[in-house]
Design a protein that fits this description.
It is a single chain. The chain is built from 14 helices and ten strands. By secondary structure, it is of the alpha/beta class. The protein folds into two domains: 33 residues, no CATH class; 264 residues, D-Maltodextrin-Binding Protein, domain 2 (3-Layer(aba) Sandwich), CATH 3.40.190.170. Strands 1, 2, 3, 4, 5, 6, 7, 8, 9 and 10 form a ten-stranded mixed sheet that branches. It is globular and about 65 Å long.
């Protein structure tokens, strides 16, 4: 616009000088034309310089590379979902978001990595949120809080009272909640033959690994097992060496992906609902542009939405994999038998974990379930 105006003004000057000089003022006209060309060129240079100094548009956000860790092996369902999330976030950001993905706990146990996310040493993690930071975060693994997929979605999805409480509590410790990642219902894996496995009152005395959470420890005790708290990273070796003979805290996918062929028996008692959470260092999130933030949140919402659709069918898929590839015997349960397990644990364990999981909020989400 400025360049065109400068040229137009220069042209008017040329015509004006030509008109004043008449037919005999050739030298004056030539000089005027030269001056006009010089003026136009200078205007063009000024316009170009101004454009170069103008603030960059929003679409030219600085490229940011984010580290994202998770606990499952490369090619697993969580790994594929994380990759899809990263691809969508990158596309929605206009290519200004890049991701370095670290699967299979490459950056450390999920507890350690979450603490690294809190201080900004790692940008993101999709995994269980450790109760070492806040016992409330173990609510997603609470014993028999949900027993069906519709119940689990109504209880744990983003936007529910549980989801909203996660957002608030995480922000207080410098973490941005992105989305839930619903996984599976849990069971017990054994390397030895189970004793009366469909009876919740059996006293088998089998030593099993339990996560360091009251809910798991007391559930194992109520079901007749001897619980030994161990990190998830030590389960495989501990079973190989005979420190324990089984474990609780995984579902079929987790048992297949992490424990493998040493699981001889799988007991799908649906003792807990496993939900991972996709989180980010809060300061890092706040440092991004609005477009980049929206890209991450939108991709996260789509990630969770898709998981609620596909996750229910994964249990049967992984149970079949365990049976076909490792020869694992899958113990079958009737609805009545599963209800008996749930009833016993809800009566005896819930009073012990109520305060850890929010007190009144725990009462709200468990009302009418026992």
């Amino acid at each position: 616009m400025k360049k065109a105006l400068a040229i137009a003004l220069a042209s008017v000057m040329v015509l004006s000088l030509a008109a004043c000089g008449g037919s005999g003022s050739t030298s004056s006209t030539t000089a005027a034309a030269a001056a006009a060309e010089t003026t136009a060129a200078a205007a063009a240079e000024t316009t170009a310089a101004a454009a170069a100094e103008a603030p960059a548009a929003e679409s030219s956000d600085e490229v940011v590379t984010l580290t994202l860790a998770h606990t499952r092996p490369d090619g697993s369902s969580e790994d594929l979902a994380v990759k899809a999330f990263c691809e969508e976030a990158k596309e929605l950001s206009g290519g200004t978001l890049e991701f370095e993905i670290y699967p299979a706990s490459q950056l450390g146990d999920y507890t350690t990595v979450f603490e690294r996310v809190m201080i900004g040493d790692v940008d993101m993690q999709c995994a269980t949120v450790p109760t070492s930071v806040d016992k409330f975060f173990g609510l997603g693994n609470g014993a028999y809080i949900a027993t069906t997929w519709p119940d689990a979605q109504a209880t744990f999805a983003s936007g529910t009272p549980v989801g909203n409480a996660m957002v608030e509590r995480m922000e207080k410790i410098g973490v941005k909640y992105i989305n839930m990642f619903p996984f599976y219902f849990g069971g017990i894996g054994l390397g030895v033959q189970p004793i009366d496995p469909t009876n919740p009152d059996a006293k088998n005395g089998i030593k099993i690994r339990v996560p360091s959470m009251t809910s798991f420890e007391k559930t194992a005790e109520e079901l007749g097992y001897l619980g030994t708290p161990l990190p998830a990273s030590e389960v495989f070796t501990s079973m190989q060496t005979g420190v324990v003979e089984g474990f609780i805290g995984y579902g079929a996918e987790g048992a297949y992906s992490n424990i493998g062929d040493i699981v001889k028996y799988w007991l799908p008692i649906n003792d807990h609902f496993e939900v991972h959470t996709n989180v980010m260092n809060l300061d890092k999130f706040n440092s991004l542009s609005q477009k980049q933030q929206e890209a991450i949140m939108t991709a996260g919402a789509h990630m969770e939405e898709n998981r609620w659709k596909v996750a229910p069918d994964e249990t049967a898929v992984y149970e079949k994999k365990m049976h076909d590839e490792f020869g694992t015997e899958i113990i079958e349960y009737t609805d009545e038998e599963l209800a008996a397990f749930a009833s016993k644990i809800r009566a005896n364990v819930w009073p012990l974990i109520r305060e850890d999981f929010g007190g009144e909020l725990f009462d709200q989400i468990t009302e009418g379930k026992n």
